[in-house]
Write a structure and sequence with these properties.
Elements lengths: L3 E9 L5 H9 L17 E7 L2 E7 L9 H12 L6 E7 L6 H11 L5 E6 L6 H11 L6 E4 L8 H9 L3 E2 L14 H16 L8 E10 L3 E10 L2 H8 L4 H18 L2 E10 L7 H6 L10
Parallel strand pairs: 1-3, 1-4, 4-5, 5-6, 9-10
Antiparallel strand pairs: 1-7, 2-3, 8-9
Helix pairs in contact: 6-8
């Protein structure tokens, strides 16, 4: 058998476990994970390479009803990955009841001619009867495979990869064998800082914050990173900074520790907070931050 390769898009509703799954597959953290919905904003690319194959995974933003221009662009990014790939994983949270959002995604999936796997995630939190019931509900011919998994505990993920290879053809190695992510370092650095904000701040903050990396200077034993944290309102700026600067200090410390692990050296991280009112609805600002409009044809 020759070398196989192909592209796989992971789609689903927010918080279904897409980012946890892609991190598990490539055995490295490339996508930020948070219990708060809409954590992923960009399509994140992860690469799994073994001796006999290379699979390129695209972790898309969760499909949801958008409340602003940023939300619309996140949905466009997801829809654009319903084409141009070899296989689609539709991942659902097996512990959640079927709702309007699921119906919306299913209609999109049924319109594609690509093979689609249904991944029932979080089986570690389900009973056997609940899983059987969920499989029976979805087993209507829409999906080529229905595979129960736990992205968190790595349950059945190896089988998922092996079954996926049956749908791949012989091809080339698109990325070097030691590359696990196809994103520039600025993106990874910004996402780590944003993850720490999601971890440490209140509910109001997560969807109104963006990170712009303004400067990266690499010296012999230190990497200097200047990052601007953009928020919607003055009150949010106060929340991110915190009393006597405690919150921004904590964000910076947690981000720096993880960045040092990734970079493998000392990091000097300088963070600033700036108010950009209504940035999520400003096309120019969204373009500058990399949330580019994507054309989608059904």
């Amino acid at each position: 058998m020759g070398f196989k390769s192909g592209f796989i898009s992971i789609v689903g509703r927010p918080n279904a476990g897409k980012s946890t799954l892609i991190n598990q597959i490539v055995k490295q953290k490339i996508a930020i994970v948070s219990p708060k919905a809409q954590t992923t904003r960009d399509a994140i690319i992860g690469v799994l390479t073994e001796e006999e194959y290379q699979l390129i995974y695209i972790d898309t933003p969760g499909i949801h009803k958008p409340k602003h221009e940023l939300g619309s662009r996140m949905n466009q990014a997801s829809y654009s990955h319903f084409k141009g790939v070899d296989l689609i994983y539709y991942i659902i949270d097996g512990t959640e009841a079927f709702g309007k959002g699921d119906q919306f995604v299913l209609e999109r999936i049924r319109s594609t001619k690509l093979p689609v796997f249904l991944l029932i995630n979080k089986v570690d939190a389900m009973t056997k009867d609940e899983l059987i019931e969920k499989i029976a509900f979805y087993d209507d011919g829409t999906f080529k495979e229905i595979i129960p998994i736990s992205a968190l505990t790595n349950d059945n993920v190896d089988r998922l990869i092996q079954v996926s290879l049956e749908y791949m053809e012989e091809g080339v190695m698109y990325y070097p064998k030691d590359q696990v992510s196809a994103y520039p370092e600025q993106f990874i650095y910004a996402e780590i800082i944003r993850e720490k904000i999601l971890e440490l701040t209140e509910e109001e903050i997560p969807h109104s914050v963006a990170i712009a990396i303004e400067r990266i200077v690499k010296k012999k034993d230190t990497t200097i990173i200047d990052a601007v944290i953009l928020v919607d309102r003055d009150s949010q700026k106060g929340m991110v900074i915190g009393k006597q600067g405690r919150m921004i200090k904590a964000i910076g410390e947690k981000a720096r520790e993880e960045l040092e692990t990734i970079i493998g050296g000392k990091v000097f991280l300088e963070t600033y907070v700036r108010v950009e009112k209504n940035w999520r609805n400003r096309a120019k600002m969204l373009n500058q931050l990399g949330y580019v409009e994507t054309e989608y044809e059904s």
